Amino acid sequence: MNASRDFYDTSPGARINGSIASEKWTIAGALAEFIDNSFGQGMATKVAILDNPKLHTLTIQDNGVGMNQVGVLFKLASDQVEAQSDTDISQFGMGGSEALVWLSWTEWAEVWSVRDGEYQHFKVDWNQLRDSNEFPKVPTSKQPASRAPKAIRNGGTIIRVKVRDARQPWQRPAVQRQLKAIFAPAAEFGKELIWVKAGGKRESLTAAPLAPSTANSITISVSINNDPALSVTGQVWYDEDLKGAQGVAFGYGPRVIILPGSPASRDCFSKPDAKSYGGR
């Protein structure tokens, strides 16, 4: 018979949230995690970001299939219980849970979601948990979708965060440009990303699909960051008259994961012929 052994509990305390909040991430990077989840696991075709500068809130709303459990959003480094495949892009980057903490720590975050006709809602006030060293306790119970906000009664998710003071002020035009670059391939996959200002004015962040020419192209086969899960194969086309191109944007589905001008794209595609490449 094996002798019983005691083990020390090494699970992190809730104060780890403060460490996450101090990471040097960006507003655009955090929002991109939510958008990834919507386009990926959520299978949404449309994501809207509602910006209210007066209230310092950002709302991410999608028309996807909703979440099985909204508690997943509040579990740091959660398992890929909702991933579509073992190569889902959601396994890379900071993750939606970390993005939620980074944006709203010391403030609050709220989520509404409808899936298969069932509705869940939860709101966390981080200040109430910060001193108690506790993680959010999220109920698993569900209600009829008829009690959900009208915009998602047929399915979808809304995430609203109060952006913490440490993130203020931030440059909205710069964030919009970054998101437009990150999700440049979205339209090619039937996805739409829009930014909605407080007054209701809408701005598309979805670039028009490319119309590549097969006349000037090269075949590529690379592994990004030497990660087999991030292998890329296909055609890259180039235009002799293209101005200002610095490299090639690598995308995984609707998201770009390496932007033009990055060392990886320059090293792969601007040598040795020094042509100007423009494509995905």
Topology diagram in text:
Blueprint (H helix, E strand, L loop, with lengths): L15 H6 L5 H13 L6 E7 L4 E6 L33 H9 L3 E8 L2 E8 H5 L12 E2 L11 E7 L9 H11 L9 E5 L5 E3 L12 E7 L7 E7 L12 E3 L2 E4 L4 H7 L11
Parallel strand pairs: 1-7
Antiparallel strand pairs: 1-2, 2-6, 3-4, 3-6, 4-5, 7-8, 9-10, 11-12
Helix pairs in contact: 2-3, 2-5
Give an account of the 3D structure.
18% of the residues lie in helices and 24% in strands. The protein has helices at residues 16-21, 27-39, 96-104, 126-130, 172-182, 263-269, and strands spanning 46-52, 57-62, 108-115, 118-125, 143-144, 156-162, 192-196, 202-204, 217-223, 231-237, 250-252, 255-258. An 8-stranded mixed beta sheet has the order 5-4-3-6-2-1-7-8. The chain has a two-stranded antiparallel sheet with strand order 9-10. A two-stranded antiparallel sheet has the order 11-12. Helix 2 (27-39) packs antiparallel against helix 3 and helix 2 packs across helix 5. It is globular, with a radius of gyration of 21 Å. It starts with 15 loop residues before the first helix and ends in an 11-residue tail after the last helix.
